Amino acid sequence: MRNIPVIFLFSFTAVSSLSDLFYPHGTEKGDKVNPVADDVSSPAIELKSPFSFFGHTYSQIYVNNNGDLTFKLELTAYVPKPFVADGTTTIIAPLWTDLDNRKEGVISHNQYSEGSVLLRATQDINQYFPKVNFTASWVFVATWDGVPYYNQQGKASFQVVLISRGTLSFMLINYGPIDPTTHEVQAGYVTFKHSFEITSTNSNVSKLSSTSNVNVPGRWAFLVNQGSSYTTTSDLNIKVSEACKANASQECTKTLLSKIDNITTEVLSKEVVEDKLKFLTTQQNSLLVGKTNQDELISSFNNVLRATDKLMSTLVKKVETISSVSISLETLEARVTEVGPSCSMMEIPQLDTSENKMDIDLIGISKSEMNQGHAAVAFMSYTNMSNSSLFSTTISTIKLLSTVVSATLPRTRNTSLTKPVNFTLKHTAEFNLSGTPSCVYWKETDWVTDGCTLIETNSTHSVCSCDHLSTFALIMQTKPSELQNDHRLDVFSMVAETLGLVFLVLTLLTFALCRKNPRVINTARIQLCISLLLAHFLFLLTQILLKSKSLQPHKLACAVMAGVLHFLFLSAFVWMFIEALMLFIAVKNLSRPKSKQRNFLNWKLLTVVGYMIALFVVGVSAAVVPEGYGSEQCWLKQDKDLKWSFLGPVSFILASNTILFSLIAFSLGYSLAHLNSQVSQIKQTRTVFFKTMAQFIILGCPWVLGFFTADSKALEIIFVILISQQGTFIFIVHCVLSNEVKQKYRKLLGGFQVNFSPTIITETSTTQG
Q: How many other C-beta atoms are found inside a 10 Å radius of the C-beta of residue 533?
């Protein structure tokens, strides 16, 4: 698996110009040019002065066309390999990728032992390494100037400058314009004992010209003559036997853990550490899963953490400037960064994995008198440590919101922090605003919050600030009483939904019975009932399936149900708006002579508008953000901003309906006051008032309460009652209190006819439908 890249040490908005940053190059400066061919190298170049590179001295060098330098043999490979300090490879790779100079671009090299180039090199080194009183005596410059990528658009310009005097050696890497590429890339260097990656992903390659470790955009500087003060040891003493590899068991894992625990000052190569971590993390579940005894589970968890920390510590070598190592396994990502006394940086960058980040003042720690300029930090992110039993020791009901991360200061004498460490943790589960997120750390037997504070959170990430290093996680805590209340509210909501569905069915049956009476039904009213019935039925079915945990494994079904719910509820809101508009027109018609009353809306047009608006919104949403459907509740995902495709139209309709309802109430009062005495003297004043207020619920205005229920259980209960009983109020107003409906039922039941007076709001003819 390819290594995750070491993150860029600094990023700048401005980029130094090529002429300012690059040392003199080109044929006009006397450079020798590499062959114009694909995947070739220069001949062996005899160095005028031996060059010391991390403990080894070289007298020749190869400039390879694919963006790298080697000392012993030419390197024509166009697919870069991950940097592994295996004791056999030394490569300087400013940008190792598939380049092709056959059409354009120049690859050249030169070396200097006198003149202005040496003066410039002297000034640069003394600027970046002020503790070294240095005067350059030899400079080697290799330049790739505007070299295109193989079989791709785009090209790259970069340069390597080797500078030395005697055994004191430095290296500068300069980046000019770098176009994006889809080829694999590797930038940095690898030696016999360690490696340093600037980047190993092509997504970051275009940013090289704006990054640096010396605060000069596009330039990297390294002291390279120093070897490691530690000696790499053999891994035979912690070797995993072939029998264990073939048939791993808990006994094999325990044996390996015991050997790792005996590590003291040993230094291991990245490859060896990866091998041990692969075995350990593969067998980790055998340690954690199946433990019935809580003490055994905790002991195994601690053993895994301790062994991982020990293995990461073996990657630390006493360096003079800065070094970084990245490890990426299926269940573990790790970063180790160390600084030395010659490091000229003011701060190290964020350490990051694919999901989490860490900010630490490693430079400040290294300046401690005890540390004498040396300090190292290891940052690990685990993806397989979500055992629920580990999260129920003292907190009765919690939900893990992030991967488990761990941070240590390996082989650093004084581990006191100069300032709090910040962890940016990505949410791995949907964020529930009703819960209480907490930053916790593992304290031998339990997760506790001492010394850790949640300082920032949103729907996708949270930032925890801690005054110590340990193993951390982000959890969502819910008190048992709150869970019990939530369960009761869920049951109450389902009962209310069921009751509302019953009355919606009764309403539609009644409308079918009175389908020839336009004073009882209209298109908007019927379609509103159908949309509400289907929406609430599907919502109730979804909740039942979620409660039984039979829907969660079927992500596609969940996403489809979310899309259908989105469409049905939007349709219902559109029909609420049309019903409000038609009711307003009907009330306005009360003040007109019957001969002048008009039907403004055609039922066919209404049907198209009522459903096509919702279909258009859902169609566009699904096309633009197809992954936005299918949250844990089978609804719109909160972190995809798709919620506004529902809240936007709903907010507009609610605002419009509230205004229309106010106008209806005002117009009704005005019209009643000016009707002739025969009509205006209504005996059932209370009934008219009730019908008017019921329209407030029928038109969906109580949905506004949904924006304010987060902090009030009482308001949430009122909200559930009102929105679930829209069908109930429709049945009462348009069926129970309708004289026409009463007469129809009497006829159906063989009763007798009675005279009746026309009602005011609901029986006014508004449209044929």
A: 20
User: Model confidence over 168-210: pLDDT tens digits?
Assistant: 899 999 999 999 999 999 999 988 777 788 887 887 788 898 8
Q: At what angle do helices 555-589 and 523-547 cross, to 10 degrees?
A: 150
- In this structure, which amino acid lies at residue 48? K
Rounded-to-integer distance, Cα 40 and Cα 346, Å = 40
> Tokens for 369?
């008198």
Cβ within 8 Å of residue 458, ≥6 positions away: 431
Dump pLDDT digits (tens) for 318-327: 788 888 888 9
DSSP class per residue in 200-264: --GGGGGGGGGB-SSSSTTEEEEE-S---SS-BPPSGGGPPPHHHHHS--HHHHHHHHHHHHT-S
The dihedral built from the CA positions of residue 683, 687, 693 and 698, taken in this order, carries a sign that is negative
Tally the C-alpha atoms within 13 A of residue 533's C-alpha that lie toward its C-beta: 16
Determine how many CB atoms are found less than 10 A away from the CB of residue 500. Answer: 25
329-to-283, 408, 680 alpha-carbon distances in Å: 13, 19, 81
pLDDT at res. 456: 87
Find, among 631, 651, 654, the residue nearest to 641 by Cα.
631
The 10 Å CB-count burial string (b at 16+, else e) for 614-625 is: beebbeebbeee
Give the predicted TM-score (pTM) of the model. 0.43
Category of 345 on φ-ψ map: left (φ > 0), alpha (ψ -120 to 50) or beta: beta
Biggest alpha carbon–alpha carbon distance for the chain: 121
The total number of residues written for the chain in this structure: 769
Report the pLDDT value the prediction gives residue 76, as an integer from 0 to 100.
92
- Look at residue 236 in the predicted model and tell me its pLDDT: 42
Torsion of CA 364, 366, 372, 373, to 10 degrees: -100
pLDDT digits (tens, 9 = 90+) for 263-292: 767 778 788 888 888 877 766 555 554 455
Instruction: Pick the range with the lowest mean pLDDT from 118-132, 226-240, 597-611, 669-683.
Output: 226-240
Q: Enumerate the β-bridge partners of residue 539.
A: none
Give pLDDT tens digits for 132-173. Answer: 889 999 999 999 999 999 999 999 999 999 999 987 899 999
How far apart CA 39 and CA 68 sit, in angstroms, is: 11
For helices 250-261 and 294-313, give the axis angle rounded to 10 degrees: 50
Residue 195's nearest CA partner among 411, 5, 381 is 5
**603 φ/ψ angles, rounded to the nearest 5 degrees:** -65, -30
Residue appearing with tokens 């205006």:
680
Quickly state the pLDDT bin for 93 (edges 50, 70, 90): very high
Comparing C-alpha atoms, which of 161, 157, 158 is closest to residue 118?
161
Residue 581 near residue 747, CB atoms below 8 Å: no
Can you give the pLDDT at residue 172? Answer: 96
